[in-house]
Amino acid sequence: METLWSALALLSGQRVCTRGDPVRQTVYLTFDDGPDPEHTAPLLDLLAKHGAKATFFLVGRAVQAWPELVQRMLFEGHAIGNHSMAHRRMSAWRPGPEGDDIDQVDQLLCRFGARHRALYRPPHGRISPATLWACLKRRQRVMLWSLDSHDYKLAAGEVVQRLRDRRLRSGEVILMHDDQPCAFEALEVLLPEWKHAGLRFAALA
Ligand SMILES: [Zn+2]
Questions:
Q1: What does each C-alpha distance from 195 to 27, 78, 95, 152, 188 come to in angstroms?
Q2: Is the pTM of this model over 0.85?
Q3: Total number of domains constituting the chain
Q4: Cα of 140 to ligand 1 centre, how many Å?
Q5: pLDDT at 2 over 60
Q6: Measured in angstroms, how far is the CA atom of residue 152 from the centroid of ligand 1?
Q7: Is 90's pLDDT higher than 70?
Q8: Is residue 64 classed as helix, strand or coil in its secondary structure?
Q9: pLDDT of 46
């Protein structure tokens, strides 16, 4: 899959990425599907405790419901990205509502001080030709990931094991979610270990 994405990155003029800047020992944590009224705040507390910055790919409807969490993310030095308005699957081949959806969430995020064109991560990481076309037309950068934590289907202990087994490379983008407790529970264990190993955690630029 990563080969396909790398090819896509080249074809799109690096507009579709799976990795962040390969700054030495720097890893990029990303959290999708929030903000969440129950799980986002404890995660922000944990990141703050370890001086880790991250990127949150936000669902527009949740941003409208919990704006104070978005303000807190930005205040604490995290980055925010566009993860669609309602997390619906987009049509695979026919040009559909992708462009309008992207614009709507970008405008929403702008009100919090995000840059005009936020990083975009399509729901389910699914880039249809129509989505790609909408992004290229807008000169929007699409950020996927290089390492999926599987926190949406594994128990926290299994996520810890899965990520411990991988030698993290500089520029690694890790996919996690903040609409459930698994990421928090796994990172409570992993962040101290990773920091001890000399890794740094930055927000995507
Ligand atoms: Zn998602």
A1: 11, 18, 44, 24, 12
A2: yes
A3: 1
A4: 18
A5: no
A6: 10
A7: no
A8: helix
A9: 98
* Residue of 39, 78, 83, 177 marked active site: 177
Q: What pLDDT score was predicted for residue 8?
A: 65
- Cα-to-centroid distance, 83 and ligand 1 (Å): 7
Which residues touch 30 (CB under 8 Å, ≥6 apart)? 54, 55, 56, 57, 81, 121, 143, 145, 173, 174, 175, 176, 204
Q: How many CA atoms lie within 13 A of 187 on its CB side?
A: 29
pLDDT at 9: 62
Q: Tokens 């990795």 identify what position?
A: 19
The CATH code of the domain that includes 95 is 3.20.20.370
Active-site residue flag, 78: no
End-to-end CA distance of the chain: 24
pLDDT at 103 (0 to 100): 94
Structural domain harbouring 103? 2-201
CA of 20 from ligand 1 middle (Å) equals 19
Q: What is the pLDDT of residues 12-54, one digit of tens each?
A: 666 889 999 999 999 999 999 999 999 999 999 999 999 999 9
Tell me, yes or no, if 179 is annotated catalytic: no
How many CA atoms does the CB half-sphere of 90 hold within 13 Å? 28
Quote the ligand 1 centre to 178 CA distance (angstroms): 10
